């Protein structure tokens, strides 16, 4: 009996120390990052220093190596900014993102008098007569996946309990959220609502339809794309969405953000091409380190550099991206857009200006 009591006490103490270490590590990370910002150091060096001292080197090494390789390959740097002021309500600082509903708003939030046709003319004019020869403009529709079982668990247990305990597990015994959870019935319904909304916009409003689509490798994002664009696109003739590793949710610790294998994606979504270099198994996720927002911004910027405005993409001026809340938050930050919360199944259009400079 005494042995059992001692064992339980030791386990409880270990748990307390573990979570204390996580909180302490987060505080140290923040102090180091703030110090680096005050010293005006290069952002990539900040991220490498931050991770090498206080977390797993795996994520940062992969991110920095890949971005450096991409810059050496393209020999250029791209500066992004938000060109959506006066175009979309979501860019207006006075728009309340907690109350805004893209489904009931006019044209997904478009505020131009002439609607989508005027935006099409503006895009054409901007790209034909840019302020500088190396400036380009593109319209991105950023879609968040519908409700997944991890989102349902957060609603049941609350954000703090989720972050501190439940996110580390695969299940509570009733619902399963790790790894890589499925959509809930509500999540599937949210994607189907978007399908109806897109169809109405296409038929009645002449919306600018994405020519090219990119999607996260997680099931909840892939299924959201599938339901959203069902019968609106023919993946055999129009081409399926490109599955891109960089579009995945924040990496590490949370089991819901651990992806499945390349083989699983290829077999379940046979019409969806997968980017070159996509590993069979998840080589980035670790149980003891959570990717920082700064690190996530590195890979999201790389995605924009590489595909949307880069040589490995195409000339599409209207692009669709189906991913996650963390991914969308990072895109908005990289392009200088105001913070805007996008709920499960939500969509936000953004007009992006890119200035390309040769290195």
UniProtKB/TrEMBL annotation:
Under the heading Pfam families, the entry gives: His_Phos_1 (PF00300)
For this protein, the record's InterPro entries field holds: His_Pase_superF_clade-1, His_PPase_superfam, PGM_Phosphatase
Molecular function per GO:
phosphatase activity
Q: For the region Disordered, what residue ranges are annotated?
A: 28-47
Annotated GO CC locations:
cytoplasm
Look up the domain of life of the source.
Answer: Eukaryota
- Can you say what this protein is called? Similar to Saccharomyces cerevisiae YKL128C PMU1 Putative phosphomutase
């Amino acid at each position: 009996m005494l042995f059992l009591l001692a064992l339980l006490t030791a386990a409880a103490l270990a748990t307390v120390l573990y979570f204390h270490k996580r909180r302490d590590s987060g505080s140290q990370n923040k102090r180091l990052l703030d110090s680096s910002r005050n010293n005006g150091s290069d952002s990539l060096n900040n991220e490498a220093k931050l991770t090498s001292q206080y977390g797993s080197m795996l994520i940062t090494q992969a991110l920095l190596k890949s971005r450096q390789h991409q810059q050496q390959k393209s020999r250029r740097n791209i500066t992004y900014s938000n060109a959506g002021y006066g175009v979309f309500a979501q860019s207006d600082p006075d728009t309340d993102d907690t109350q805004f509903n893209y489904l009931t708003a006019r044209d997904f939030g478009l505020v131009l008098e002439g609607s989508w046709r005027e935006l099409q003319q503006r895009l054409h004019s901007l790209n034909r007569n840019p302020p500088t020869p190396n400036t380009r403009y593109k319209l991105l529709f950023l879609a968040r996946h519908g409700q997944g079982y991890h989102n349902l668990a957060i609603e049941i247990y609350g954000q703090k309990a989720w972050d501190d305990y439940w996110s580390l597990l695969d299940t509570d015994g009733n619902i399963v959220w790790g790894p890589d959870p499925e959509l809930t019935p509500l999540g599937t319904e949210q994607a189907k609502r978007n399908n109806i909304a897109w169809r109405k916009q296409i038929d009645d409003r002449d919306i600018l339809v994405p020519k090219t689509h990119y999607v996260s490798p997680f099931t909840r994002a892939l299924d959201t794309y599938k339901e959203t664009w069902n019968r609106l696109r023919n993946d055999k003739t129009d081409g399926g969405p490109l599955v891109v590793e960089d579009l995945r949710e924040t990496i590490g610790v949370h089991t819901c953000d651990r992806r499945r294998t390349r083989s699983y994606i290829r077999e379940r979504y046979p019409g969806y091409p997968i980017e070159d270099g996509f590993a069979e198994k998840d080589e980035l996720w670790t149980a003891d380190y959570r990717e920082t927002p700064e690190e996530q911004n590195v890979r999201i910027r790389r995605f924009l550099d590489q595909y949307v405005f880069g040589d490995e993409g195409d000339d599409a001026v209207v692009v669709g991206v189906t991913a996650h809340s963390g991914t969308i938050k990072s895109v908005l930050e990289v392009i200088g857009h105001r913070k805007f919360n996008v709920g499960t199944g939500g969509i936000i259009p953004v007009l992006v200006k890119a200035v390309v400079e040769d290195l």
